[in-house]
Amino acid sequence: MSAPIISVQGLAVGFGDQPLLQGLDFDIQPGEVFVILGPSGCGKSTLLKNMIGLHQPMAGRVLIDGDDITAADEEGRRRIQRKFGVAYQSGALFGSMNLLENVSLPLEEYTDLDASAIELAARLKLSLVGLAGSENRMPAELSGGMQKRAAIARAMALDPAILFLDEPSAGLDPITSAGLDQLILQLADILGITFVIVSHELASIFAVADRVIMLDRDAQGIIATGKPADLRDNSPNPRVRQFFNREAAV
Amino acid sequence: MAAMAKLEISVAADGIRMVLGGRLDADGLAPIWPQARAELVRNAGLPVRVEAAGVDYCDGAGLAFLVDLLRMERPADAQVEIIDLPDRFRHLLDPFDPAAFRPPLVEGGARENIVARIGRSAAGFGADLKSQVAFIGEAGRALAYALRHPGQVRWRDTLTVAEEAGVNALPIVTLVAFLLGVIIAYQSAVAMRQFGAEVYVANLIGISMVRELAPLMTAILLAGRSGAAFAAEIGTMRVNEEIDALTTFGFDPIRFLVVTRLLAALAVTPLLAIYADVVSILGGALILLTFQIPLVTYFNQVFTLVDLHDLMGGLFKCLVFGVVIAGIGCLRGLQTGSGAAAVGLSTTRAVVSALVLIVIVDGGFAIVYYHLGI
Fold this sequence. Notes:
The complex is a heterodimer of chains A (about 250) and B (about 375). By secondary structure, chain A is α/β, with parallel strands linked by helices. Chain A is built from nine helices and ten strands. Chain A has helices spanning about 45-50, 75-80, 100-110, 115-130, 145-155, 175-190, 200-210, 230-235, 240-245; strands at about 5-15, 20-30, 35, 60-65, 65-70, 85, 160-165, 195-200, 210-215, 220-225. In chain A, helix 3 crosses helix 4, helix 3 (about 100-110) packs parallel to helix 5 and helix 4 crosses helix 5. Chain A is globular, with a radius of gyration of 18 Å. With about 375 residues, chain B is an alpha/beta fold. Helices cover about 70% and strands about 10% of the residues of chain B. Chain B is built from twelve helices and four strands; from the N terminus they run ββαβαβαααααααααα. In chain B, helix 7 (about 200-240) runs antiparallel to helix 9 (about 255-290). Chain B starts with 5 loop residues before the first strand and ends with a helix. The interface of A and B includes residues 107, 111, 112 and 157 of A.
């Protein structure tokens, strides 16, 4: 097995002095589609924000391609952050720019490509997520699902080795969601992009995930790790089986 | 790690041969992309054969490069052909139809002619005026209802707004009013000294501050602080669908949001103006002390000339300014579109509209007061 591209070691995250998750240890391999799942409020998005350097964890460290993002200074963190792209739950597109400008911005700032090349590269990214023809539209003119897809296109703008996607399928219609799953698999397979996805959309999880970790608020940590189908059928933990079989808690 | 992108171009009479290899990513392609494009443009009549067997990495930028080579319109016998591209990259390239990316995107489209633009602006101005009139009607009705039924007014919200717009504005009003008094005293004292008339600076400060400058300055500060805040807050509520939530609960957003702000502004604007009157007159007094004008003389001069009519005239203007500032701030907030940029736009429009209306209203008062002999 090759060296992990992301390694989370003894991580504790929370708000103020209140820990939400503690003692998190897991590795993510290059090209893996890794899904973080769990019931609402269990700390999935908080964990993601700690992994990408937006929040400082209470303890532990996160190595991205060998560099510890939790210990890096401002400059070091920026350098590490260029290795990955992030698509936020709400899209977080820049409201004063149209879609093409949103996707072009990182290319303009970080590459030496000329304007024509940047425009084409950005159009290709938008076309990949099914937004060809919407290049000149402003984020405010788009539906939630379209904003989400545009955010994924923007996260891919610099072709990073790692993509963090926060709830990418939530709010998408089944056809678009299936198309997105296919795209994730293709990019992971052919380009070797590593995906870290926060989700609780079961259909997507079964379609794309190589491996999942399931978080739990009461346990304040990981209660299951493995392939989603295995966990659904064979997990000894009833909560895990309930989650994967969409059964109400008793 | 694969080698950087490489491109070798050889041009012959029967066509162009491009040998492409290495890692096709943004860093490697930056120098060779314009070179390849220029070659295709220069030899538009020759067929192009791109041999891509040596490509060992191709990401989004690489795909864009290949699509760029394929998308150019060329004669049927001068097409671009990419051969031997490894299958794993071919699978990525195939879904894109290069022709679909052919027309470069044009910013904004054709420019509208000037007559159409003037017409559009006039129509926009008319529509805005209409919405302002409609809003005045709605807000006026809601305010009248609130005054008839004070029990239904959300007084706690009103007090919170009044505290933010009034009490919290005291430091800035103090600073500006004091400095205004000081500046007017200095500027006029220097000129009047030549005629030995420094004592009349007190009259000048008293009358100008009470009748005109204190109400105007208070209104401008209120427009910049509270008018903008009203527009931003209500605009954000609009963006977050909170206004829709109020409406679907059966609540009237005008009663909930506008009436409270109108009442708060009506209450605090005259009070702030009185406070500004006092502070600016004190500022002037301090300066005139340095010109050997005793405080007793100064205040005698002020109070002999400034009467209740002047004070009431200034305060009545303030009431109208308060209504204008709160009203336009709320209106612009309610007119907010969607997105963060729309909130910024509403805030700007609220301040600009309030300033324009303050000047217009003030001009109107000057004429009316002149004819009424106030």
